[in-house]
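Issue: ligand-bound run for iron/sulfur cluster - logging full I/O for the record.

Environment: standard queue, default settings, no custom constraints.

Inputs:
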Amino acid sequence: MKKLFTPIEVGKLKLKNRVVMTAMDLSYTAEGHVTDRVTAFYEERARGGAGLIIVGGCKIDEYSGAQQMMDISDDRFIPGLQRLTGGLHRYNSYVAAQLFHAGKYAHSSEIGRQPIAPSAIASKFTREEPREMTKEDIKRTVENFARAAERAKRAGFDAVEILGNAGYLISEFLSPVTNKRTDEYGGSPEARMKFGIEVTEAVRSALGKDLAVLIRLAGNDFMPGGNTNKESRVFAAELEKHGIDAFNITGGWHETRVPQVPMELPRGGFAYLAKGVKSVVSKPVIACNRINDPLLADKVIRQGSADMVGFARALLADPDMPNKTREGRLDEITLCIGCNQGCLDNSLRHRAVECMVNPRVGREHEVAYKVPATHPKKVMVVGGGPSGLFASKTAALAGHRVTLFEKDEKLGGQLFLAGAVEGRREFRPFMERLARQAEMAGVIIHKNKRVDEGVVKREKPDVVILATGGEPVKLNIPGADRGSVVHAWDVLADKTDLGREVVIIGAGATGVDTALHIAQMGTIDAFTLQFLFDNKAEEVETLWELSNKGTKKVTVIEMQDKVGSGIGLSTRGMKLGMLSRYGVEVKTKITAKEITPEGVVVVEDGKTKLMKCDSVVIAAGVRPAEGPHEKIKQHVSKVVVVGDAKKPQNGYQAIRDGFMAAREI
Ligand code: SF4
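Outputs:
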């Protein structure tokens, strides 16, 4: 690790390292005030070694954002903010407040008034039309930014970050898509920059020279007709002249069709945006988005794409990541996998942010990670899926003697299967790392070992955690046992071959993932694509075809009228878009009645018809797996059932279940 842990100056601040925790809405506040939950959350990240922590977004006025966000629009919020900054300073971390104004991305139901924006153009994000800002609105908003900055100074912050990206107010002024003004704030690129520059100057003058001023910018809006990496460079270069000390460069707007943070985005995939800005400014630049691994972060800095790296979800997943990295304990780090299941999916529903791979997130104030067991017990965990593995690691860390039994060769259960899909590959290394961490904590793992009554009688555990997972729901229609019929899990596990035309019955999360997996068969991989592209071997159109059109014709049918139920809010739209891109046909409100040698007999709109195909894949859901649970219970005083063995749930819930069960041993 050559660069990530070297000091760097941002304005007058001398950061101990280049790890920046970037702001993210946590929804842990009550009416904008800092709570114990907020302070405990951030203090854990400061203790973990981050050099700079940017908290917020903090609303600067009554138009700015949702109720549960942190607020810096009034002096009454200062005591709480002082408590927060004081706590973080104890760990030698600098702390910045992000000054937040959502513009037309604010919901009227949240702010209690019509949102304001440069022009009265409806937001695709909220579906609401904002009010065009008057000159008076503009003047007042600039002043509110300055007053918020001045409050940040009084509250003990070392820096502020102006929010200028993602489709929020300042980026709305910058973009020709959302700024149609005919006065001096609209029209030419220079005029569209005017509002952002006025905010920067007002904030700088409110703070003087001692505090640093950062700005978060979109490296590319990724909006049709919007600003690209070229315009973001022009804007950054101009802002540098007006007092910006560092540039925090992220991806595009919330409403862009280009995925911004899911695991489908390759690790470090947007570092090139920071590199573009870095080529035109002399102040430090922070690279962001899916840089989840400190080794990659170090490489981004060493190669010259950025000076610092921003981590948000990576520090949700593991607040101790900086310290563990510095101490060479890389295997102990839990990496963010970009699943969005606990963080963004909650945030989009205005729920408190949590994390799939770290069940303590948001509960740092009430749940310790490692509580030494007062009476260490002998614990048997049955099942090596996410719930069982997490339960075993947690129990072992508490000092219990833990043995885990898995009936298959592979650990990871359904997450291992989900990791078969191109773009969902993070699941597999996560499960492998979790298994390694469990072993490092002292768990003895037996694979290919089924547990029955006899094993339990021999082992004589004090506690059994049954994490035996789920099993596919069987389809009870004629022909369901034909040779042409397979289950989705067997397809994902690569245990079966399929004919050219495939019908999938069931369009929940597994059905959609399986459809994508099959549709991707026969497409070229990323390396081949790059080879052909670099050598200009094929036309761009042909390359697109080669990477999006496979060898199978896939149709998914679903009884309900909704496709992808069970997929999180932040990724469902993207996946439906992928289905369409890969040419998968999706049919809803259609019921399978029989499977014949020719295909699937279905009823659609009251009419019976045959859908011809070569193979049928069943993805009709999951139910708790049957097993010798009752017999085991006769021999052990405490038996806890967790994960899908209790009831079908997603990976986030399964891990949380395992964690809580192990804590209660
Ligand atoms: Fe990362 Fe998933 Fe945790 Fe969010 S929920 S921080 S994406 S691992």
